[in-house]
Automatic annotation (TrEMBL):
InterPro entries: DUF4192 (IPR025447). It comes from Glycomyces artemisiae. This is DUF4192 domain-containing protein. It holds the Pfam family DUF4192.
Length: 137
């Protein structure tokens, strides 16, 4: 399943279309896996995506129930932050924390944003054990 989730992230990052309900649900569930979430963060940080597909992440977060919202909203906020949209990032992080007050990544990114860290400082976020995440299935 992990391989399919990674492929889905790549697919939706490589197209300008937005996913339908079934794919939104799949992406939202997949982002609950920290390895998949971190893979998405690395892809956003790569700088090879026009606008980091902020629209995709906002679209997914917008359609998540509260119990699945924090990872999706945090990824949306991260994409906005990396692309220099601090206002949108702030809103996304606050949304994530409203849904899940102890969601650690949202807490850390919100603290970085409020402390004035530049978007470029986020370059290494999500660079955990990529090889393990990509090889597992």
């Amino acid at each position: 399943q992990r391989s399919a989730d990674l492929n889905a992230i790549d697919h939706w990052l490589s197209t300008s279309a937005l996913p339908g309900p079934d794919d939104i649900a799949s992406i939202g569930l997949a982002l609950g896996d920290l390895d998949i979430r971190d893979y998405a963060l690395r892809r956003i940080s790569s700088g090879r995506l026009e606008g980091n597909r902020i629209d995709l992440w906002l679209w997914v977060a917008r359609h998540m129930a509260d119990d699945l919202l924090a990872p999706a909203a945090t990824v949306a906020g991260f994409a906005a932050y990396r692309f220099g949209n601090g206002v949108l990032a702030l809103e996304a992080f606050e949304t994530a924390l409203k849904a899940s007050p102890h969601y650690r990544l949202a807490q850390m990114l919100l603290a970085a944003l409020q402390a004035g860290y530049p978007p470029s400082a986020l370059g290494n976020i999500g660079t955990g054990d990529i090889e393990a995440a990509e090889k597992e299935d």
